[in-house]
Amino acid sequence: MIKSIRWHHGVLLLLTMLLMMTACKKETHFITDKQYRNQVHSDYENRMVLAERRADVLFAMMDTLSTEEREAMEFLYAYMPYSDLADYDGDYFLRQVRSAFAARDTFAWGRTVPEDVFRHFVLVYRVNNEDLDSARWIMQRELKERVRNLSMYDAALEVNHWCHEHVAYRAADSRTSAPLATMRTSLGRCGEESTFAVTALRSVGIPARQCYTPRWAHCDDNHAWVEVWIDGRWYFLGACEPDPELDMGWFSVPSTRTMMVHSNCFGPYRGSEEVNFQNSLYAKINMLPNYAPTEKVSITVYNANNQPVEGADVKFKLYNYSEYYPLATVKTNSKGVAQLTTGKGDLLIWATDGKQYAYAKLDVRQQQSLELYLTREAGTAYEETFEMVPPEAGKAKVTPTEVKVKTNAKRIAYEDSLRGAYVATFPTQQNYKELLKPNANLTDAQAWDLIHRSEGNYREVAFFLNNHFQQEEDIYLYEYLCSFSDKDLRDTPAEVFEAQLTFDSKTFPIDVYKKGLMPARISNELVRPWGRYLVEKFSEEGMGNANAEQVREWTLKNVAVDDTGNYYNCPISPIGVFELRRSDAHSRDIFYVAACRSLNIPAYLDNATNIIYVYSDNRWQTITFEEKEAEQPTAKLTLTYKGKTPTNPVYWIHFTLAKYEKGDFVTFDYENDDRLAHFPATLDLVPGYYMLSTGNRYPEGDVLSRVEFFEVKEGDQLTKEIMIRPLEAVNPRLQQGDKASINPSVELFDGVTLADYAGSKGMLFVFLGDYREPSKHLVKELQAISKEWKAWGGMTYLVAPTEAKALSWNLPNTDCFTAKATDKDPLRDQIIDALKLDFKGDYPLVALVNNKGEILFHSEGYRIGLAETILKMTK
Prior knowledge:
The protein has 27 helices and 35 strands. By secondary structure, the protein is α+β, with helices and mostly antiparallel strands. The strands form 11 sheets. Strands 16-27-26-23-24 form a 5-stranded antiparallel sheet, with no helix packed on it. Strands 33-32-31-34-35 form a 5-stranded mixed sheet, with helices on both faces.
């Protein structure tokens, strides 16, 4: 009996221990909010249906995952843009999830990050519209030991130093390279720098997001930077531009003048920020109050019968790049009201129901509400002028100690040297032939041009060229590679070059072949090897000999178009469109052109007008996916210019052309287009209602804007003059007073005084500081107008750090001197004192001075178009 009791006691004890062990092993939820978790799961199931054609590669592993992994994967799948559902696989996303969890479990701050912040700003693999790669786990491996023992705050600063070791700023085209491709070349524009930095920060478990001002108010451009979540609050930093502290950056003062700063967030967002837009997939959040004084404006839209209009689009437009760009679009509620928090400057408010429209200027400083009546319709010819004033500048948030500034400057110089040493490994004109076999299809000059432009991708380009070193008939090798963008040459693998290579079959005229069959690039997409794939797939569907109209009909029938699902606007590849059978309109158009080319039908997408052309019946003809018949460009518009400043207007900088579509004007993109290189210039247009917009900026950022509306009918041959409103000598908005001045007898160098140096033309002081992005912009602009600058005849006194290598810039009429931003500079200080500036190192610092020492114009900090503004002031 005693043994029996002992046996039962032992069994009970064993069962208790097993239950405890089971309880200990119970898996935790990644999403602890049950209601939110259920919503994610429901949205995920809907996505499974949408992506059923790719189910095997996307969802096959889901039942093998832990609870946390599965919920994280469901969150990603439920809300990722179509480009990611179409072009990547489940193994890739699972590795992203496991890498994010590894960061959470490795670093001390990992478990301090709130669940929702981790979900939106660590787990998510995409930053903006970049091409995706394996950067997260590679960066995690590189950074792990470097930041493991730091505080979260110091780790964020250290990650940015690492980013600067590998990437610096350079302007580039709109396609955003993958982080590792940016690293391979060591240069990227601000969108690529911020993508790189956010990826690096997330790789070590620091929540980060890209901040974006879609357009500056005070100058023509935009900018992207980074916010990091540290111990309960968000800070900002300049991506790949390390500062001594967080909440610093060359843009800290310009950002006080902006009218919008926003970021995209995967999924239903419940943060504290104002949401400008939210749908079932993502939210666009408004972070402007972190940077600038704001007001909430309220717009009420009525119809012609004075009744509120529900569901109208209200677009809050800012003048920039000679167009009125929508910073945000908000739908009106049942009372006809749309609201937005914005900065204290001027906006053009545009409202439309898709048929009728209305607009008015709004000075947010003076007025926070506006009523608009939808009474305008397309067709009326008239012109209108506006004076648009940006917000006033504020102050920088943080001023670091001098010791920290100097320490940081030393690190930056060292990091520049590391990056410079890497770039020095790229081939030179003296040694590039060591990579190549003698090529019968290229001249030496052509071979060097391709290797030189490929930069860090030179091995891939060389490998491809060496596959085609022997003479080949009908292979336009150099022209084929030149049909790729410079960025393509820097990040395209050799196998893609090879897969997309075609040979002239002599079926079509050579110009038709080179325009409509040879290029692998169609628009702004990442080039992938779609050619043979589409041939095989269309052959399987009995479409191997299809004509352009049959391809169009197949596309209409099989590809559903949804412009909300691909919200990051990263083009879906032609293969991805074919497999997913769902697309945004732009990716659909790219797919159609690719499909035609794969079937030997010449086709191209005019990226200025977004019109598709196919070669049929011995001529180029337009096609459309709209219900109406495709309109042909039967009208001609000739643009003339009679002004003196500028000597030759430039598209986007001085003027734009837009066509009316569904209640608003859509601006064409003729940037660097030969059709508008010289004037008079004639464009072939389809009939419609058009707007010609021009603008001229004062140094303070104020704009004199002019818009002209006109109709173009079939067969018309119209002429319109590009009329740029002239600036007055002094902005009439500003009070005139005595000019600030410095001593004209001050010695500049070797006994030469300011008066001597300035002569009768005047002189320009340029202080570049630590030569960061704003200063680099100015140098490039001065180089671009070197001919006009030389013709002016004045002298330039330029001060730059040694590492900038200013002597190599070959600027006309310029004397270069070297100094660090932290060095004492009596001449610079005299200018600052004369202007009574509260100068906080906001470079470049520029002053135009006459031989009396009077300061005729000055500028500090970031301002696109500064060189042209200076040139205007010399007239």
